Amino acid sequence: MHRETMKPIPLYHADLTQQDHQQVIHALEQPQWQDAEQTAQLEAFWSARWQRPTLALADPHDAITVLAELLQWRMGDAVALPPLMEPIWAEAFIQRGIQPAWLDLDPKTGHGGGQPMGLEEIAGSLKGWLDQATMGLPHFPFTLPTTLQPLVDISHAPLPLWRAQKEAILILQLDANLPLQGGGLTLLLLPDHLELEQARQLRPRLPSRAAVALANSQSEQVEQLMQYRRHVAERYLEKLRPRGLFALPWYHPLRNWAFFNLDFADRRHASEFCTFLQGAQIGCQLGCALPPPHQRDGMQRYQQRSVLIPLYGALQERDQKRIINRIHRWVERQ
Protein backbone atom coordinates (compact mmCIF):
# COMPACT_ATOMS: atom_id res chain seq x y z
CA MET A 1 0.00 0.00 0.00
CA HIS A 2 1.48 3.36 -1.05
CA ARG A 3 1.65 6.21 1.40
CA GLU A 4 -0.36 9.24 0.32
CA THR A 5 1.87 12.13 -0.75
CA MET A 6 1.38 15.18 1.42
CA LYS A 7 0.11 18.23 -0.43
CA PRO A 8 2.61 21.11 -0.15
CA ILE A 9 1.59 24.02 2.06
CA PRO A 10 2.95 27.26 0.52
CA LEU A 11 4.45 29.99 2.68
CA TYR A 12 2.43 32.67 0.87
CA HIS A 13 -1.05 32.42 -0.57
CA ALA A 14 -3.23 35.25 -1.86
CA ASP A 15 -6.54 35.40 0.01
CA LEU A 16 -8.76 35.69 -3.05
CA THR A 17 -12.50 35.12 -2.68
CA GLN A 18 -15.30 34.26 -5.08
CA GLN A 19 -16.38 37.89 -4.92
CA ASP A 20 -12.88 38.94 -6.05
CA HIS A 21 -13.03 36.62 -9.07
CA GLN A 22 -16.46 37.87 -10.08
CA GLN A 23 -15.49 41.54 -9.80
CA VAL A 24 -12.29 41.12 -11.83
CA ILE A 25 -14.02 39.10 -14.57
CA HIS A 26 -16.71 41.77 -14.81
CA ALA A 27 -14.04 44.49 -15.09
CA LEU A 28 -12.20 42.60 -17.84
CA GLU A 29 -15.42 42.36 -19.86
CA GLN A 30 -15.69 46.17 -20.04
CA PRO A 31 -14.28 47.99 -23.10
CA GLN A 32 -12.55 50.79 -21.17
CA TRP A 33 -9.12 50.07 -19.69
CA GLN A 34 -9.61 52.48 -16.78
CA ASP A 35 -12.53 53.57 -14.59
CA ALA A 36 -12.26 56.96 -12.88
CA GLU A 37 -15.48 56.45 -10.90
CA GLN A 38 -14.38 53.12 -9.40
CA THR A 39 -10.93 54.57 -8.67
CA ALA A 40 -12.56 57.44 -6.77
CA GLN A 41 -14.65 54.90 -4.84
CA LEU A 42 -11.49 53.09 -3.76
CA GLU A 43 -9.87 56.36 -2.70
CA ALA A 44 -12.97 57.36 -0.72
CA PHE A 45 -13.01 54.03 1.11
CA TRP A 46 -9.45 54.34 2.41
CA SER A 47 -9.78 58.06 3.03
CA ALA A 48 -12.68 57.33 5.38
CA ARG A 49 -10.78 54.48 7.04
CA TRP A 50 -7.66 56.44 7.89
CA GLN A 51 -9.19 59.95 7.88
CA ARG A 52 -6.70 61.11 5.25
CA PRO A 53 -7.06 62.30 1.64
CA THR A 54 -6.09 59.34 -0.56
CA LEU A 55 -4.72 58.97 -4.08
CA ALA A 56 -4.65 55.66 -6.01
CA LEU A 57 -1.69 54.94 -8.30
CA ALA A 58 -0.92 52.07 -10.65
CA ASP A 59 2.22 50.84 -8.87
CA PRO A 60 5.15 51.89 -6.63
CA HIS A 61 6.99 53.43 -9.59
CA ASP A 62 4.13 55.87 -10.17
CA ALA A 63 3.97 56.52 -6.42
CA ILE A 64 7.66 57.49 -6.31
CA THR A 65 7.19 59.71 -9.37
CA VAL A 66 4.44 61.61 -7.55
CA LEU A 67 6.30 61.77 -4.22
CA ALA A 68 9.52 62.98 -5.81
CA GLU A 69 7.76 65.89 -7.51
CA LEU A 70 5.47 66.64 -4.57
CA LEU A 71 8.33 66.71 -2.05
CA GLN A 72 10.91 68.17 -4.45
CA TRP A 73 13.31 65.25 -4.27
CA ARG A 74 16.05 65.56 -6.88
CA MET A 75 18.44 63.13 -8.52
CA GLY A 76 21.27 62.41 -6.10
CA ASP A 77 19.14 62.85 -2.97
CA ALA A 78 18.54 59.94 -0.57
CA VAL A 79 15.62 58.49 1.38
CA ALA A 80 16.08 56.27 4.44
CA LEU A 81 14.49 52.85 3.86
CA PRO A 82 13.88 49.85 6.15
CA PRO A 83 15.49 46.65 4.81
CA LEU A 84 12.25 44.63 4.84
CA MET A 85 10.53 46.87 2.28
CA GLU A 86 9.39 45.04 -0.85
CA PRO A 87 12.31 45.15 -3.35
CA ILE A 88 10.23 47.05 -5.92
CA TRP A 89 10.45 50.18 -3.76
CA ALA A 90 14.25 50.33 -3.87
CA GLU A 91 14.07 49.73 -7.62
CA ALA A 92 11.59 52.60 -8.02
CA PHE A 93 13.77 55.00 -6.02
CA ILE A 94 16.92 54.07 -7.95
CA GLN A 95 15.15 54.42 -11.29
CA ARG A 96 14.20 57.94 -10.25
CA GLY A 97 17.82 58.71 -9.32
CA ILE A 98 17.16 58.69 -5.58
CA GLN A 99 19.52 56.64 -3.42
CA PRO A 100 18.11 54.22 -0.79
CA ALA A 101 19.89 54.81 2.53
CA TRP A 102 19.28 51.54 4.38
CA LEU A 103 18.31 51.45 8.05
CA ASP A 104 18.96 48.64 10.49
CA LEU A 105 16.02 46.91 12.16
CA ASP A 106 14.78 45.56 15.45
CA PRO A 107 14.81 41.78 14.79
CA LYS A 108 11.77 41.22 17.04
CA THR A 109 9.47 43.86 15.54
CA GLY A 110 11.04 44.47 12.14
CA HIS A 111 10.84 48.25 12.61
CA GLY A 112 13.65 50.31 11.12
CA GLY A 113 16.22 52.06 13.27
CA GLY A 114 19.76 53.31 13.58
CA GLN A 115 21.53 55.71 11.24
CA PRO A 116 20.97 55.41 7.47
CA MET A 117 23.82 53.76 5.57
CA GLY A 118 25.80 55.26 2.71
CA LEU A 119 25.06 58.95 3.22
CA GLU A 120 28.72 59.82 2.69
CA GLU A 121 28.41 58.57 -0.90
CA ILE A 122 25.37 60.56 -2.03
CA ALA A 123 25.62 63.67 -4.19
CA GLY A 124 22.56 65.36 -2.70
CA SER A 125 21.07 65.21 0.79
CA LEU A 126 18.81 62.99 2.90
CA LYS A 127 15.25 64.18 2.14
CA GLY A 128 12.89 61.52 3.51
CA TRP A 129 12.57 58.78 6.11
CA LEU A 130 10.39 55.80 5.17
CA ASP A 131 9.59 53.28 7.87
CA GLN A 132 6.95 50.58 7.96
CA ALA A 133 4.45 48.87 10.22
CA THR A 134 6.45 45.69 9.67
CA MET A 135 4.73 42.34 10.22
CA GLY A 136 1.55 44.22 11.08
CA LEU A 137 2.85 45.81 14.27
CA PRO A 138 1.73 49.38 14.96
CA HIS A 139 4.25 52.05 14.12
CA PHE A 140 4.34 54.76 16.75
CA PRO A 141 5.33 58.39 16.00
CA PHE A 142 8.99 59.26 15.98
CA THR A 143 10.79 62.62 15.92
CA LEU A 144 12.69 63.65 12.79
CA PRO A 145 14.38 66.88 11.74
CA THR A 146 11.95 69.23 10.00
CA THR A 147 13.96 68.84 6.78
CA LEU A 148 12.93 65.16 6.52
CA GLN A 149 9.49 64.02 5.34
CA PRO A 150 8.24 61.04 7.39
CA LEU A 151 6.59 58.24 5.41
CA VAL A 152 5.14 54.99 6.78
CA ASP A 153 4.41 51.87 4.75
CA ILE A 154 1.17 50.42 6.18
CA SER A 155 0.90 47.55 3.67
CA HIS A 156 1.38 45.02 6.51
CA ALA A 157 -1.15 46.84 8.69
CA PRO A 158 -4.10 48.04 6.58
CA LEU A 159 -6.56 48.31 9.48
CA PRO A 160 -6.30 51.66 11.33
CA LEU A 161 -6.01 50.10 14.78
CA TRP A 162 -3.37 52.69 15.74
CA ARG A 163 -2.93 56.42 15.14
CA ALA A 164 -0.22 57.45 12.67
CA GLN A 165 1.57 60.75 13.13
CA LYS A 166 -0.32 63.57 11.47
CA GLU A 167 2.43 64.86 9.18
CA ALA A 168 3.42 61.42 7.81
CA ILE A 169 2.49 60.25 4.31
CA LEU A 170 1.16 56.70 4.52
CA ILE A 171 1.72 54.14 1.76
CA LEU A 172 -0.54 51.14 1.21
CA GLN A 173 0.46 48.64 -1.48
CA LEU A 174 -1.94 45.88 -2.55
CA ASP A 175 0.01 43.05 -4.14
CA ALA A 176 1.16 39.44 -3.96
CA ASN A 177 2.78 38.33 -0.67
CA LEU A 178 0.96 41.17 1.13
CA PRO A 179 -2.29 40.91 3.14
CA LEU A 180 -4.42 42.66 0.50
CA GLN A 181 -4.43 42.15 -3.25
CA GLY A 182 -4.70 44.73 -6.01
CA GLY A 183 -2.25 43.87 -8.74
CA GLY A 184 0.43 46.19 -7.36
CA LEU A 185 -1.94 49.16 -6.99
CA THR A 186 -0.53 51.64 -4.47
CA LEU A 187 -2.35 54.20 -2.34
CA LEU A 188 -0.86 57.40 -0.94
CA LEU A 189 -2.66 58.64 2.18
CA LEU A 190 -1.71 62.30 2.49
CA PRO A 191 -1.77 64.75 5.43
CA ASP A 192 -4.08 67.33 3.83
CA HIS A 193 -6.29 68.07 0.83
CA LEU A 194 -3.89 70.63 -0.64
CA GLU A 195 -1.25 67.93 -1.07
CA LEU A 196 -3.93 65.63 -2.54
CA GLU A 197 -4.79 68.12 -5.27
CA GLN A 198 -1.13 68.65 -6.08
CA ALA A 199 -0.52 64.89 -6.17
CA ARG A 200 -3.55 64.33 -8.37
CA GLN A 201 -2.09 66.69 -10.96
CA LEU A 202 1.17 64.74 -10.89
CA ARG A 203 -0.39 61.27 -11.27
CA PRO A 204 0.99 59.73 -14.50
CA ARG A 205 -2.08 57.55 -15.16
CA LEU A 206 -5.03 55.88 -13.50
CA PRO A 207 -4.66 52.28 -12.31
CA SER A 208 -6.17 49.63 -14.57
CA ARG A 209 -9.88 48.82 -14.24
CA ALA A 210 -9.11 45.20 -13.25
CA ALA A 211 -6.65 46.24 -10.51
CA VAL A 212 -9.16 48.74 -9.12
CA ALA A 213 -11.95 46.13 -9.22
CA LEU A 214 -9.80 43.68 -7.23
CA ALA A 215 -8.67 46.39 -4.80
CA ASN A 216 -12.26 47.54 -4.21
CA SER A 217 -13.43 43.98 -3.61
CA GLN A 218 -10.60 43.22 -1.18
CA SER A 219 -11.17 46.54 0.59
CA GLU A 220 -14.84 45.71 1.15
CA GLN A 221 -13.74 42.43 2.82
CA VAL A 222 -10.71 43.78 4.70
CA GLU A 223 -12.16 43.22 8.18
CA GLN A 224 -13.01 39.61 7.41
CA LEU A 225 -9.73 38.90 5.61
CA MET A 226 -7.64 40.25 8.50
CA GLN A 227 -9.83 38.42 11.02
CA TYR A 228 -9.02 35.13 9.26
CA ARG A 229 -5.33 35.88 9.69
CA ARG A 230 -5.81 36.80 13.32
CA HIS A 231 -7.58 33.47 13.92
CA VAL A 232 -4.65 31.50 12.50
CA ALA A 233 -2.10 33.55 14.47
CA GLU A 234 -4.01 33.09 17.72
CA ARG A 235 -4.16 29.35 17.16
CA TYR A 236 -0.39 29.25 16.69
CA LEU A 237 0.10 31.33 19.85
CA GLU A 238 -2.18 29.01 21.82
CA LYS A 239 -0.88 25.67 20.55
CA LEU A 240 2.84 26.04 19.86
CA ARG A 241 5.25 24.94 22.61
CA PRO A 242 8.76 26.29 21.86
CA ARG A 243 10.53 24.78 24.92
CA GLY A 244 13.11 27.54 24.83
CA LEU A 245 14.23 26.85 21.25
CA PHE A 246 12.50 29.88 19.74
CA ALA A 247 10.36 32.83 20.75
CA LEU A 248 6.85 33.40 19.46
CA PRO A 249 5.94 36.75 17.86
CA TRP A 250 5.33 39.72 20.09
CA TYR A 251 1.62 39.91 20.84
CA HIS A 252 0.09 43.35 20.59
CA PRO A 253 -3.67 44.05 20.72
CA LEU A 254 -3.34 46.52 17.83
CA ARG A 255 -1.42 44.11 15.59
CA ASN A 256 -2.55 43.34 12.03
CA TRP A 257 -1.31 39.78 11.54
CA ALA A 258 0.52 40.04 8.24
CA PHE A 259 3.15 37.36 8.98
CA PHE A 260 4.09 34.92 11.74
CA ASN A 261 7.80 34.75 12.55
CA LEU A 262 9.67 32.56 15.02
CA ASP A 263 12.80 34.07 16.58
CA PHE A 264 15.37 31.33 17.26
CA ALA A 265 17.97 31.38 19.99
CA ASP A 266 20.75 30.39 17.59
CA ARG A 267 21.52 30.19 13.89
CA ARG A 268 21.96 26.40 13.73
CA HIS A 269 18.52 25.61 15.14
CA ALA A 270 16.86 28.11 12.82
CA SER A 271 18.50 26.55 9.76
CA GLU A 272 17.75 22.96 10.82
CA PHE A 273 14.15 23.85 11.65
CA CYS A 274 13.56 25.42 8.25
CA THR A 275 15.12 22.43 6.47
CA PHE A 276 12.87 20.08 8.50
CA LEU A 277 9.69 21.96 7.55
CA GLN A 278 10.67 22.11 3.90
CA GLY A 279 11.23 18.37 3.96
CA ALA A 280 7.69 18.01 5.26
CA GLN A 281 6.38 20.07 2.29
CA ILE A 282 5.65 23.09 4.49
CA GLY A 283 6.75 26.47 3.20
CA CYS A 284 9.02 28.57 5.40
CA GLN A 285 11.64 31.27 5.00
CA LEU A 286 14.80 31.91 6.96
CA GLY A 287 15.54 35.63 6.99
CA CYS A 288 15.07 37.49 3.71
CA ALA A 289 16.98 38.81 0.74
CA LEU A 290 19.41 41.40 2.08
CA PRO A 291 19.58 44.73 0.28
CA PRO A 292 23.25 45.14 -0.75
CA PRO A 293 25.32 46.02 1.11
CA HIS A 294 23.80 45.33 4.55
CA GLN A 295 25.84 44.12 7.51
CA ARG A 296 24.01 45.83 10.39
CA ASP A 297 23.63 43.85 13.64
CA GLY A 298 19.84 43.78 13.78
CA MET A 299 19.47 42.77 10.15
CA GLN A 300 22.10 40.06 10.46
CA ARG A 301 20.32 38.60 13.49
CA TYR A 302 17.00 38.62 11.64
CA GLN A 303 18.65 37.05 8.59
CA GLN A 304 20.13 34.20 10.60
CA ARG A 305 17.50 33.47 13.26
CA SER A 306 14.03 34.58 12.14
CA VAL A 307 11.83 32.01 10.35
CA LEU A 308 8.48 32.81 8.73
CA ILE A 309 5.81 30.10 8.70
CA PRO A 310 2.53 30.12 6.71
CA LEU A 311 -0.10 32.65 7.81
CA TYR A 312 -3.08 33.53 5.59
CA GLY A 313 -6.83 33.24 5.66
CA ALA A 314 -6.93 30.44 3.09
CA LEU A 315 -4.85 28.19 5.39
CA GLN A 316 -7.30 25.40 6.18
CA GLU A 317 -7.67 24.02 9.70
CA ARG A 318 -6.18 20.63 8.79
CA ASP A 319 -3.10 22.39 7.38
CA GLN A 320 -2.78 24.52 10.52
CA LYS A 321 -2.88 21.32 12.58
CA ARG A 322 -0.28 19.71 10.33
CA ILE A 323 2.08 22.68 10.70
CA ILE A 324 1.70 22.71 14.49
CA ASN A 325 2.24 18.93 14.73
CA ARG A 326 5.36 19.07 12.55
CA ILE A 327 6.83 21.90 14.62
CA HIS A 328 6.21 19.91 17.80
CA ARG A 329 7.83 16.86 16.21
CA TRP A 330 10.96 18.88 15.48
CA VAL A 331 11.00 20.31 19.01
CA GLU A 332 10.73 16.82 20.52
CA ARG A 333 13.77 15.66 18.54
CA GLN A 334 16.05 18.35 19.97
From TrEMBL:
<protein>
    <recommendedName>
        <fullName>DegT/DnrJ/EryC1/StrS aminotransferase</fullName>
    </recommendedName>
</protein>
<dbReference type="InterPro" id="IPR015421">
    <property type="entry name" value="PyrdxlP-dep_Trfase_major"/>
</dbReference>
<dbReference type="InterPro" id="IPR015422">
    <property type="entry name" value="PyrdxlP-dep_Trfase_small"/>
</dbReference>
<dbReference type="InterPro" id="IPR015424">
    <property type="entry name" value="PyrdxlP-dep_Trfase"/>
</dbReference>
